[in-house]
Design brief:
Keywords: Hydrolase, Protease, Serine protease. The protein is of the alpha/beta class. The chain has 9 helices and 18 strands.
């Protein structure tokens, strides 16, 4: 028996092509609201063949492992040398007139230490999808959330959008940083139904983990590899269909960490592209940059293929137990970008500009800058450039 994810539309408006599992999913009435449902089931090969005849079924794909896009050590950057708030200054968060007031942010991560003082005055609505409780024993989710909207601590500024008071936290990964793709999809649907303006995540579909899981079940290595790649493609497909279904005036913008898999410190050849689901059509993939002699440059671990860059090296934010800690990674960059997106939502509403996933993405891309980036930084690594906060009178 294999565990499968089933994406359905109970209304019957969205339908797939007559060829099973071949794509071609589209609505009969493009203006009708979508009501996607994600289910899981353990199915035998024969049950799979029987299930695909269900007209409400849009796609059926193997469930797979997910993993945290874990922070990266950087030998050349010691925590003691990290400069508090450098990333906030680089993106203009320290002089913008916007604060993110009235914006609802959702983070799909490892939970949150909601009692940390940086979250004072923030209304946290939490839901556990990983089955280990909403408390964050990992620390990653707490660090990311604090960078997005945390209050100052001991004279140190932590958060980008300190006016945000409405935070949705979906625990999509267990405390060990591992999870399942169905947990991610359920967390995403929960954030959608909770009317988030922005959704941020820093996890990846875990092909190596899927291969290990299948070989432990007795799969030959070659077959396990092929099956894991098939599951990867299928889960990416589910993500893209979900985003297609919920696209519209009320759809939030999704931002995902591009991944920390490159090893440029060994050789420039050791690069790879964006991890999924950040690679999905409809998601803005965020890469990391850090300071160097020429200004700013892409971090050596940051995967290529990002749409935008944000500060992700030597980022000081909340640690478990009430203090601060320094982390490096595209997760930290994602947190800065989510905060900037919140600032822009507030600014666009003040200007009576319609806020949709498309208009917000266009604003982030259109206001990004390449000016601080070194001359060797290419669009392959940097996308449209470094995210920037709305400008004010101090421009």
């Amino acid at each position: 028996m294999t565990r499968y994810i089933l994406l359905r539309d109970p209304t019957g408006n969205w339908r797939r092509s007559p060829v099973p599992l071949a794509g071609g999913i589209a609505p009969q009435d493009p203006d009708a609201p979508a009501a996607p449902v994600v289910e899981t089931a353990d199915l035998s090969p024969q049950e799979v063949r029987d299930t695909i005849d269900d007209p409400t079924l849009l796609t059926l794909q193997p469930a797979m492992c997910t993993r945290l896009i874990a922070p990266e050590p950087m030998d050349e950057l010691r925590s003691a040398d990290a400069v508090p708030g450098w990333g906030l200054r680089a993106i203009g968060a320290d002089w913008t007139p916007s604060s993110g007031a009235g914006v609802r942010v959702a983070l799909l991560d490892t939970g949150i230490d909601a009692h940390h003082p940086v979250f004072s005055g923030i209304d946290v609505t939490a839901q556990d999808f990983a089955g280990t409780g909403i408390a964050d024993a990992n620390g990653h989710g707490t660090h990311v959330a604090a960078t997005v909207l945390g209050r100052d601590l001991g004279g140190t500024r932590v958060g980008v959008a300190r006016g945000v008071t409405d935070l949705l936290v979906a625990k999509a990964l267990a405390d060990n940083g591992r999870g399942r793709s169905e947990d991610f999809f359920q967390a995403m649907l929960w954030a959608l139904r909770s009317k988030a303006d922005i959704i941020g995540f820093a996890l990846a579909f875990d092909v190596p983990g899927q291969i290990d899981a299948l070989t432990e079940e007795g799969y030959p290595t070659a077959l396990a590899t092929l099956a894991a790649v098939h599951a990867y493609r299928g889960n990416l497909r589910i993500c893209e269909v979900l985003l297609q279904m919920i696209a519209g005036d009320q759809a939030p913008l999704l931002l995902g960490a591009v991944g920390n898999d490159c090893l440029r410190t060994i050789t420039p050849e050791f690069e790879t592209g964006p991890s999924a689901p950040a690679a999905a059509a409809g998601v803005l993939a965020i890469g990391a940059c850090g300071p160097d002699e020429a200004g700013l440059s892409p971090a050596p671990f940051s995967n290529v293929g990002a749409a935008l860059l944000a500060p992700g090296a030597g980022i000081i934010s909340a640690g478990l137990g009430g203090g601060l800690r320094t982390l490096n990674g595209t997760s930290m960059a994602l947190a800065h970008a989510v905060g900037i997106a919140a600032l822009w939502v507030e600014q666009m509403r003040k200007e009576d500009t319609p806020v949709t996933a498309q208009t917000l993405a266009a604003k982030l891309i259109g206001t990004a800058t390449r000016a601080p980036l070194g001359p060797r930084a290419s669009s392959v690594e940097c996308g449209h450039g470094l995210v920037q906060a709305p400008k004010g009178a101090l421009e």
